[in-house]
Each structure stands twice: as structure tokens, then as C-alpha cells.
Amino acid sequence: MNRLLSRIAFATAACASFTGPALATSVSPLSLELQSTGRKVVANIQVVNDGAKPLPVEAVTKVLTASADGFAENTEETEDLLVMPPNALIPPGQTQAFRVQWVGDPAPAESKHYYVSINELPVKLPDGQSALQILYNFKVLVSVGLANGKGQLAVSAASIGQNKDKPAPVVTVSNTGTTYDYLSQHALHLVEKDAKGTEVFNRTVSGNEFAQLVGFGLVATGQQRSFTLPIELPTKDGTLTATLVEERGE
């Protein structure tokens, strides 16, 4: 009996996009926002096969658990999020739409967050052949909130930490609202005073700048999340205060 010898290398694209001739698959969008009721209970993920061969893929949903460090993926299964079709064989040059629909509680007590992974499946090789198969895994972040919900962010702590061995702001933000919110939708005012109480740093980080430095800053309902900003402070000794301010035009 011939044995199938196949080495498989896995590459993961978690909320990031890949370009270049080496990657013949694209997935968009990489972040979905759904609501628990109304027309926004459903959205589509588009998977494009730009390769020369049929592309077998499957959609796998994993629950995300909020923590102070962000979100952790776990093995918990859910019946609240329906993805159709669960798998597909995409012909060369074609696009497959995966329908993502919230079918859970129409009035959840807190926002819900998931990864829908679009996983490329290995291809069975003819007997006697071996090959290196590079399989791509694209993770689409799906957030579900109340249709009329509103996030309520506030700074609960600020301190001087480290980023690449340099003093940097560490800001902890809490969300006491009824749905998730993004820190990047607010401006963050930072003030540092040295050990003598003299102000040595005063800067307002806009929402766009925060997104470029750290990311969108998703904060789930009831979550306290800490962010280390890659901004060098003048000194590691002293105190830091941080406040959220509304940006002009909001």
C-alpha cells in the first residue's frame, strides 16, 4: 500500500491582510459588526480564489473571552452564530460568500465576540506523491451588540510602564455601557509629572493616531482592558494621568 507523505505548514492571518503573488486567497472584510436584532443580524464574508486550482475551505467559529490583555480564543462551541455554508470548494477565479448570522438572544446582557476562521483545507495527493502544502487561515473578528446599545468608556487607571525598554504610557479602560466600544473613537489626553510634581509631558492622542499606534482598541461590555502605547515618556519616575475626551466633529 502506498503511503501519503504530506508535510503541512500553517500560516495564520489574524485580522490582517496579505498581498503579493505568493498568496492566491483573499478574505474581506476581516472585521464584522452585527446587531442582535434588525437587518444587521447578518453580514457576508467574501473569499476570493485567485489561484489556478480549486480552493477547498471551511468556516470555523470560536468564542472569544474578554480579559485585561484583550481577547482569548477558546474551544467553546456556540449555536448563537450561524455560518453558511460551513465549507465550500471555490473554483479558480471565483468568489464564495459566507453568510454570518446572529441567531442567539435578541437582547444579550453583554456584547459577544467571535473569530470566524476561514481555513484552507489540505488537498489529498495521489498515491506515491508528497508535497509541502502551505495552508492559510484567515480570522475574521465578529462583534455582536444590542441594536440600541451604547458603549461607555472611562479611564480606570494610568501608569508608567515600558515599551522596548523605554518608559511608556499604560492606560486601563473600562466599559460600563450596554455594548462594545472602540478606544480609537475617542481622543486620549496624557499628562506626565516627574517626581517633583513638574509637568514634563502633555499630549493628546487622536483616535486615528491611536488606531495607527495600537489598533482599534475594542473594549467589550463590562471589560477592563489595558493598553501600552508605543510613546516614549521623558522619565520613568513620576505619575501619569489619562482622560478620554471627545474629538471635534463627533
From TrEMBL:
<dbReference type="InterPro" id="IPR050643">
    <property type="entry name" value="Periplasmic_pilus_chap"/>
</dbReference>
<dbReference type="InterPro" id="IPR008962">
    <property type="entry name" value="PapD-like_sf"/>
</dbReference>
<keyword id="KW-0732">Signal</keyword>
<protein>
    <submittedName>
        <fullName>Fimbria/pilus periplasmic chaperone</fullName>
    </submittedName>
</protein>
<feature type="domain" description="Pili assembly chaperone N-terminal">
    <location>
        <begin position="40"/>
        <end position="137"/>
    </location>
</feature>
<dbReference type="InterPro" id="IPR016147">
    <property type="entry name" value="Pili_assmbl_chaperone_N"/>
</dbReference>
<dbReference type="InterPro" id="IPR013783">
    <property type="entry name" value="Ig-like_fold"/>
</dbReference>
<dbReference type="Pfam" id="PF00345">
    <property type="entry name" value="PapD_N"/>
</dbReference>
<feature type="signal peptide">
    <location>
        <begin position="1"/>
        <end position="24"/>
    </location>
</feature>
